[in-house]
Amino acid sequence: MDHPFQRIPRYSLPVREASEMIGQQDARIWVILGKQEVGDPALMELLRKILKAIEIDLDQDTFQILSGSGNSFYLSDMLPSSSNDPKIIFSFGVSPQDLGMEIKLTHNRPFKLIGHRFLFSHSLKDINSDSEKKRELWKAIQPMKVKL
Predict the structure, then answer these.
(1) Residues 6 or more apart from 49 whose CB is under 8 A from it?
(2) Is this structure's pTM higher than 0.90?
(3) Would 43 be classed as within a structural domain?
(4) I need a surface site. Which of 3, 91, 133, 141 has the fewest CB within 10 A?
């Protein structure tokens, strides 16, 4: 007897992964930014200053996820399922939807989700060229100082 499910075509599930990653995934601080911004030394210096203001060293303390233009992936696939290893996740210019998250975006407003702390901000390019966006970000990150 022929089983009806044998005639159904099989397809692989789509896999969506980040374009590029730098550092160790077990780092407590994750920084997500557009891949195009990494090539700009002025923007990377701005990122270093932002993180240094809250006592975070970009090279030593962070896991960086670079998202290509129009590239989206599921951040939830990368995060630990245990809340015993909470992450602090900064996203610069990468929307929650690009990370597979269906939440309403409010720039520079930290929030907690499943034990992890998130802060979505404007792109580094926009922050660098707009002093009001710099002030908003500065106010938002001050309470996020961490002891590593």
Answers:
(1) none
(2) no
(3) no
(4) 3
